[in-house]
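Researcher: We're teaching a course module on how sequence relates to structure. For the next exercise, students receive a sequence and then see the predicted structure as tokens, so they can try to spot secondary structure elements on their own. Here is the exercise chain.
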Amino acid sequence: MVDAAPEGGTVTALIQMQALNDAYLLVVRLVDPQVFGYYRRTVDAVSEYNRLDQNRLEVQLVFAALYTVVSLVTLLGAVWSGIWAANRLVHPISNLIGAAERVSEGDLTAQVKVSRDDDEIGTLGHAFNRMTQQLAAQRGELVTANRQNEERRRFTETVLSGVSAGVVGVDRDGKITIVNRAAARLLNATPEELEGRHYSESVPELGALIRRALSEPAGRAGGEVSVKRTGTPRTLSVQVSSERGNPHGFVATFDDITDLVGAQRTAAWADVARRIAHEIKNPLTPIQLSAERLKRKYMEEISSDPDTFRQCIDTIVRQVGDIGRMVDEFSSFARMPAPVMKRENAAELLQQAVFLQRVAHPEITFAVESPKEPVYFEGDGRLISQALTNVLKNAGEGIAARRAKGDEAPGRIAVALEPNGGTFAFKVSDNGIGLPAEHRHRLTEPYVTTRAKGTGLGLAIVRKIMEDHGGEISLDDAEGGDGAQVTLTFPFTQKNMRQKGSEDEQKRVADRV
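Model: And here is the predicted structure for the students to work with:
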């Protein structure tokens, strides 16, 4: 053991002697106090070292924690700085993206808020704002122009739908672009069925005129065409002209002149009939009287061949009579009387006409279907009776023509009176030879007939009577395909006498005096 006494400047050492039992060696030595100071500081340093060595782990932990905190603070600061810098760069771009999304959805009022003008993003923002402003202005102009075009289109469609003439527009490729209501009606189709198709497929009848208009320097062509659409052929007066400012587009306008052509033809034939009746009827009477006088005066004096003389005279008289009856038909057709409208009973007129034909043709069976109640209407009873008589006579002649070909089936004529709303119809069906399929629509024209000895005036007179009464005549095959069916449709009241509504037509006609 060593002990030092710095105050006294001595160092005492006590050592046990191993060789001697209970013997110790005590050594006392004087030492410089400065050495003791060094010694003391060394001991303190060793103690401090030992203390620090014992607390080293705690210090390391504290240092590690401090390092971690400083690192985290530094990292967070760096992250925040990066986010701030990125946000400063990305925010304007995000605004641009958001504005672009709004524009894509149709909002052309979208604007980008520009905070700085000294960088590329600010320049891009200003350019974007100018773009949206221009787009908004252009869209406004387009909307205004489109609204004006729509108003003009509706106005044009209204005008076209109200005109009686048919209008068909054709573009430079030959496709139909517009069809008004009158054109669709005349062509027996809907506008949707015609628009978008080539004119050669939809209206091939107009193809020649359109092609001629293409070849003409003025871009115009006109003429008459015949159009047949599941019914009676119609005659159209067509004018084809190029669109203004578009020499490759054409507009075809056409009017239905079928009735006009028929009326002109009828008027022409009426004039011919009047001239024939005037030129032929005058000499017929002297011829007939002379032939009869020759027969009376010289019949007893002829001895060489009296039979031949009699036969020739009878032939002359008979043929003169036939010519006279034909001339009478010409005269009646040329001078059709104006109808006198008054209250008539359709059922009675039908019964009278059937009775006369039943007496004239007892070999034919007549079947009549008529309402039990009177069917009153406004018309000329004499003319309508004449029309019914002509139709029934034609039916009888059709049966006779069938028998002449060797078919001995019993003749049958069915007549029906059918009221239908504001109109009524006489339907006459027979089992005769029927009507020709070709040119059937021309059978109502003067001097068009299928009979060898017919004059072709019977149905022409019927048609004239129907026109005078505002009615229609329809020629069809009889049900079952054997024979013909003629339908005469009349209105209950004439145009100048009609009132609103048709439910009480019978009552109003019956109450007329």
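Model: If you want an answer key for the exercise: The radius of gyration is 60 Å. The mean pLDDT is 78.
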